[in-house]
């Protein structure tokens, strides 16, 4: 995630970073400009077509419903992005609350304090990697019991860490350090971790229904590629920037929605998971 | 559900899978093209009508309110689809949490562990089949007690499985394996299963009010079938692709909404319940 | 509520059931057609007005804001309808859960089992009748204690049934059948019944603020009745179907919103409360 | 709040009650009609300007974004209104549940029953008055302990009543009538009263950010007052009703949003708090 | 936050406070007026271009999707603003409820009453300052134990205050003033403070994805700066106010969204945190 000052107009207007929508669409925009130029030349200079009235009436009709669909697309993508952000805010709060409860129940200096602190950190680290494709064992911190052997050859590393956490809590319960009610309460806290992971996986694995994706892309394509046919009669070579910028407006919204609908990656618009994991680990170190 | 890469533009623009909206609408689109062609020929070549100004003004007025209605339709359909997805995410979490609690309370090797694991799997299997029309007894796994005889001749198989689960929990409570509070807590977990099923049935059995369905279809019909009357005067034979594509834009949105508003089927856009049930059963096997 | 297959296009396009919006608006549509015909005849054939350019520009401006208001209206009406559906889903779940808890706590064959089963059924029956105007005592099932005399001469029958349920639970608590915590838990379950009833009454008794209702109807009226003034100059007698269908589009949306915003009646679009009450009573019979 | 039948079209179309939006805007509408008439006379009859093409293109561009802002305004205002309604529904339920719990815990005939019943009634009465400007001591019912002296010279009367309720509950706890858990549970119920009051105050004291209010009013003003400049060239004296009605459409939506965004007053669109308080007091009398 | 009467139309229409959107945009508006004037002079008086038909058709197409994006922007910004308001309403309620519970559990005159009251006040004070950039130690009230030394050299002052609160509660628990259940309940109340802080930080640190910010500003820029090219042909020097006001409408909505999306500052539209903190401190003084 890029941290930025939203009030800086000039910078943004003339900002052409490589991760910017404008830059991403540049090759396609050049292609469409060339395509429109050919139409403009052929219709005006070779075939000498005469202008028609209201050359864009039909595009106006369809542009309306396309705009509304793009806003629907943007809203659903943003909702996923914001839900992802809330889930990671919940990870932050839950890990701290879980640690605070344990720090009350466990005597100072008990060896499990460090183990559990490391395991929570591992859980979040593994979750982040898992959401970005594949959890990597060598990103984890090992303890005597939960070392490389414990993790390797397992597919779903976050669940493996969760199992270790459950085992530790169960062991402490067996040692009589907390009674059944407290044990079940801590179990519930752990459940909230796996529930959050489940919600992240839901966002990651359930994109918007494929029909909408196909439909929006098809309509944008038809819309932009039929526009020069009539537009060049009215606007001559001015239609080159016009069609290009209309394409930028519509395709840009779709591109941005694609970026944020899966918010756990490393794109400029994705959530800053790296920072969050580091912050949480720092918090845990203070508490446990 | 089809898993796909949402960023693949070219593939989607030229994608004509049989379950794609474009392919589904193809016969209707051909019909409308022919219908428009007849108008174009008759009005221009036989009757020699003269063009009118602003041939599509009225369609523009009505197209606006129709577009807004279609977005309303899309939003409500998507909300059902996403709610369905959340409910099945909740099934995943609840079944795992329920199993985890039991695995703590039941001694290792207790025979009820396997019975309950099988029953939870059956519950989800039966729910999936039930939501797709009819739960099938031969999709279930039988145990000594809950065998084919137990299920057959019952209409609502998921409720029958739930009853078996309640009975097992009650029996274990009678055996003194957990106290009243723990028994009631487990009962509450079971309630969440039946609540989820109730929510799925609500989505499945309560489509959008029939008036909206009729109204939207009527307006699309009137809109598209009156369009050639004036459009052919201005756009001549070009109105054939124009009217056809306007029909594609409006009817496509309605078709997609129809597909996702009942998300438990086996359409390309429906939720991947098959995979989810298999995954949950795998999780249970690890826990209990 | 009418159960229907949403994918049947042809049926809906040519469907003119008496409860259909089209049929309901038919008399008004005929009136507007006649009104427009008079304008068309007078302005074109008697006064011989000349056409003006852009006859519908102002209607386009106002039509936009009117369309947005109608969508606002539709969204709020649909939210009530769907909230009503959720409340009745909650009635279904709560009555079953309440019965399940009691069936665990009460010994098999205890006389209160039947009494409470009948009272829950009565509660839902009375609630349904109450929401449809007036609860009728003769729709209830009587027991020895809670017979016709108990209910008659009371205005708010559902509350009267709730009082009977509270009395029964209190009596069982006095008999020592469950301890204070269990008693309070059951009390909470009963509260959820009365909370649901309160939510239904809120939906029923709080329509959209009257200003919006007046405003939307006034704007539709002005919009449609001023349209022929200029439209007949451009579209001649074609303006008769045009104005009529524009009226159908706008008034139809308002009519549908009126129907679903109060979802507890017996209209074609209202919720199927009759079936739900029957289903719940069937479920209770199995449990208690 | 006015209770009305939403399906009565003719009544609403010709309804000009003094609290109606149309009546409220009448003086402004007359002023705008006069203003437009002056333009029409000067430009057409004195200066003899010639018509321009597309006189309202710019108004169409701006009208679009203004309409969307007005719908945003309407949605947020309606959300407050509906949230206010839900809070008062919650007051109804909570006061009844609180009374029901106490009626179980307190022996029949205990003097605190009446005191607490009066205090709850006072709380809601004082809250209503407080939300309408200033809680009035003489609207309250006094008891021996909590008489006029207790309330006078205090600014925030609802909090003063809440303190009396807390004191009573604490006293009963000291008398040993309920144990610590029950005492804390009752405390939680009381918290929900003050939480609801806090939510009402939030709605009342936090209007939509002032910038939006200024912006919308400025845009409506500019929009309507610049409209005659070009409109009179095309529509001559017909522009008088046209501009007036466009003003009615836009300003009416803003006026209605202003009315409902603060839903606790005594306007025709505000919530019927008077009735609700009377109903709740009646319910309490039956229970305690 | 500015407190205002939303019904005062004339005041707002002619209100040009320095924090008003109109005043903020004034310099940019003057620049755009000059820019348009140059186009008008050059195209009409030097180059003598002839008018084209429909000069703003393309702007109408793009203006539509831009308007929808701006409403999306406004909705998300407003949601943050309102969520921020709810969180601070929750701070108010939680601090009062926490104080009320403690005042019941701690004997009158216990020294911890004052300490905890001061710490809660410090927490909210530090949170406010923290959200506005940097918590300042000299804004806090010191006690014997938690004096300047305790706070200085720590970055995250609110967490430092929270630690003090946890320590105090833990100490009182060790002294036997409340049992484990009550201790855990108080811990949960404290968690709600840190959860609220986390939610505030989420709103503050996670602006809308940067792509949207860049995209909207770019489109507004392109939209406004290309408008004079064709508009001056039709509207001559009238296009100066026209383009300027169109810029005001679009940029104004973006500017307002920027202001409210981060609602914890000291802008005219931001939440009145200063008053809230003072009010809460006053409430605490009455209770503890």
How would you concisely characterize the structure shown here?
The structure is a homopentamer of 288-residue chains. Chain A has helices spanning 9-13, 21-46, 57-105, 111-131, 148-151, 157-174, 180-205, 210-235, 239-261, 273-287.
Structure write-up:
- 5 copies of one chain form a homopentamer.
- With 288 residues, the first copy, chain A, is mostly helical.
- Chain A has helices spanning 9-13, 21-46, 57-105, 111-131, 148-151, 157-174, 180-205, 210-235, 239-261, 273-287.
- In chain A, helix 3 runs antiparallel to helix 8 and helix 4 runs antiparallel to helix 6 (157-174).
- At the D-E interface, helix 3, helix 7 and helix 8 of D face helix 1, helix 3 and helix 9 of E.
Major sheet of chain A: none
Return Rg of chain A in Å.
Answer: 27 Å
Oligomer state equals homopentamer
- If interface size is counted as residues with C-beta under 8 Å from the partner's C-beta, which chains form the largest one? A-E, 56 and 46 residues
Q: What is the structural class of chain A?
A: mainly alpha
Q: What is the N-to-C succession of helices and strands of chain A?
A: HHHHHHHHHH
Name the shape of chain A in a single word: elongated
Helical percentage of chain A: over 70%
Number of domains of chain A: 2
Family (chains A, B, C, D, E): Belongs to the anion channel-forming bestrophin (TC 1.A.46) family.
Membrane topology (chains A, B, C, D, E): Multi-pass membrane protein
Organism (chains A, B, C, D, E): Emticicia soli
Keywords (chains A, B, C, D, E): Cell membrane, Ion transport, Membrane, Transmembrane, Transmembrane helix, Transport
């Amino acid at each position: 995630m890029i941290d930025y000052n939203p009030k800086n107009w000039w910078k943004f207007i003339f900002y052409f970073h490589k991760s910017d929508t404008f830059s991403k669409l540049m090759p396609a925009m050049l292609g469409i400009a060339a395509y429109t130029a050919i139409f403009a030349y052929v219709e005006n200079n070779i075939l000498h077509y005469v202008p028609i009235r209201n050359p864009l009436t039909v595009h106006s009709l369809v542009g309306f419903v396309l705009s509304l669909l793009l806003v629907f697309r943007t809203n659903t993508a943003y909702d996923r992005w914001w839900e992802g952000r809330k889930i990671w805010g919940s990870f932050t709060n839950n890990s701290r609350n879980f640690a605070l409860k344990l720090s009350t129940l466990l005597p100072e200096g008990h060896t499990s304090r460090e183990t559990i602190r490391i395991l929570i950190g591992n859980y979040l680290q593994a979750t982040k990697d898992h959401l970005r494709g594949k959890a990597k064992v060598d990103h984890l911190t090992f303890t005597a019991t939960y070392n490389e052997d414990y993790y390797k050859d397992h597919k779903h590393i976050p669940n493996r860490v969760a199992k270790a956490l459950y085992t530790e809590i169960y062991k402490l319960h067996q040692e009589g350090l907390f009674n059944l009610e407290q044990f079940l309460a801590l179990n519930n806290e752990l459940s909230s971790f796996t529930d959050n992971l489940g919600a992240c996986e839901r966002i990651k694995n359930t994109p918007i229904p494929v029909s909408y994706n196909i439909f929006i892309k098809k309509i944008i394509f038809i819309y932009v590629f039929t526009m020069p046919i009539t537009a060049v009669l009215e606007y001559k070579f001015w239609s080159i920037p016009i069609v290009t910028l209309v394409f930028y407006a519509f395709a840009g919204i779709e591109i941005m929605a694609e970026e944020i609908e899966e918010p756990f990656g490393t794109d400029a618009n994705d959530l800053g998971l790296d920072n969050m994991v580091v912050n949480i680990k720092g918090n845990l170190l203070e508490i446990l």
